[in-house]
Specification:
This protein has 2 domains: 6-134 and 306-334, Nucleotidyltransferase, domain 5 (2-Layer Sandwich), CATH 3.30.420.40; 144-301, ATPase, nucleotide binding domain (Nucleotidyltransferase, domain 5). The protein contains 10 helices and 15 strands. The chain has helices spanning 58-73, 113-120, 130-141, 200-204, 206-217, 223-231, 237-259, 275-288, 307-320, 326-329, and strands at 6-8, 22-28, 32-39, 44-51, 82-89, 92-94, 99-103, 108-111, 125-129, 150-155, 159-165, 168-170, 263-267, 297-300, 333-334. The longest helix is centred in the C-terminal third of the chain and has 23 residues, at 237-259. The chain binds zinc ion.
């Protein structure tokens, strides 16, 4: 297992509420695996973060997920409090079969992730796509709690979206509904990692801003640094962020025109930049919207860069409460047979 980069273990006495339930969420990203132990209000009691194996070997990464999950499980004082473990995975998933069909970031194809984990972790496991998981966190535990019809857009290294309609996830026939990141915004724009030119992701994501900074400055500058300097109006960072936020605002105006949600909620690592970035996005959004008197407002999500792992931790509770309907959403769980 790689060295633990970040770890906060449970404080003695932290889990003192009688009858409180606990769950674990794990989020597999392209570079990190994040794990949290939470109570049923999604208060974080412990977290651990480890780097993903640089060669992205399937067996090594899955073993790391198991060790991370086990390490968090070991911190639960009374196993009767434990509700289950949610796993958020990137890429194209087959939820019913618990498989990852394809992940560009990890370069994995047709991996039976849940079968592997279920055989080695004797707990109730729940699977969800990472961005859908973020949307679930906001809808049921965060900024979207009071709304019925939500467009959730995650802006980080990439850009992706989810529609929640009448509090159900709209997945689409191929499971790629609301993939706003690969809608074409600028036909002659920069090349996207999907192979097309001018996708929203290639114009407005954290990696798009890093690329633009590299072109202008001939040095690598991390997204967080670009956003921080832009916040202080330092040139050319401010212009880079304003341009990217402008493209996002345009895409969100299109999204609002097509789906007419109650609200748009923004999550992901770039949303950590806060109101400074949101204001730039909104300026462009309102500029590009037409007509309607009551326009959907745009909010920052509650969980931002942690939304996926929070949603994963929330899955066991939602399943228990049937807040997520398996038939309507295709949501699946992987409960081991009771012996
Ligand atoms: Zn693309």
């Amino acid at each position: 297992m790689p060295t633990l980069k970040e770890k906060r273990t449970i404080e003695p006495g932290n889990v003192k509420m009688k009858g409180s339930r606990l769950s674990i969420g794990i989020d597999l990203g392209g570079t990190k695996i994040a794990g949290i132990l939470v109570n049923d209000c999604l208060d974080i009691l412990a977290f651990e973060k480890i780097p993903v194996d640089p060669e992205r070997r399937v067996e090594v990464v899955l073993q790391d997920i198991i060790r991370l999950g086990q390490s968090l499980l070991d911190q639960i004082p009374d196993q009767k409090q434990f509700s289950g473990m949610g796993i958020a995975l990137p890429g194209l998933l087959d939820l019913e079969r618990g498989m990852m069909i394809f992940s560009e970031n990890l370069n994995w194809r047709n991996i039976e992730v849940m079968k592997y984990l279920r055989e080695r972790l004797p707990v109730s496991l729940y699977l969800e796509h990472d961005v859908r998981s973020g949307a679930i966190a906001e809808t049921f535990f965060g900024a979207g709690r009071e709304f019925q019809d939500i467009a959730y857009v995650s802006v980080g290294t990439g850009i992706s979206g989810t529609l929640i309609w009448h509090r159900n996830i709209i997945r689409g026939v191929r499971g790629t509904s609301a993939e706003i990141g690969h809608t074409n915004i600028e036909p002659n724009g920069p090349l996207c990692r999907c192979g097309n030119a001018g996708c929203l992701e290639a114009l407005a994501s954290g990696s798009a801003m890093e690329r633009d900074a590299y072109h202008l400055l001939k040095e690598k500058v991390r997204g967080e640094v670009i956003l921080e300097r832009a916040k202080n109006h330092v040139s050319p960072y401010y212009e880079i962020v304003k341009k990217a936020a402008g493209y996002l605002g345009l895409a969100l105006a299109n999204l609002a025109e097509i789906f007419d949600p109650q609200v748009i909620i923004l999550g992901g690592g770039v949303a950590e930049a806060g109101d400074f970035w949101l204001d730039l996005v909104k300026a462009s959004y309102y500029e590009h919207l037409t007509g309607s008197q009551q326009l959907p407002d745009i909010f920052l999500g509650t969980f931002k860069g942690k939304a996926s792992v929070m949603g994963a931790a929330g899955l066991p509770y939602l399943k228990e409460e049937r807040a997520i309907d398996q038939k309507r959403t295709g949501y699946s769980d992987d409960t081991p047979p009771q012996s």
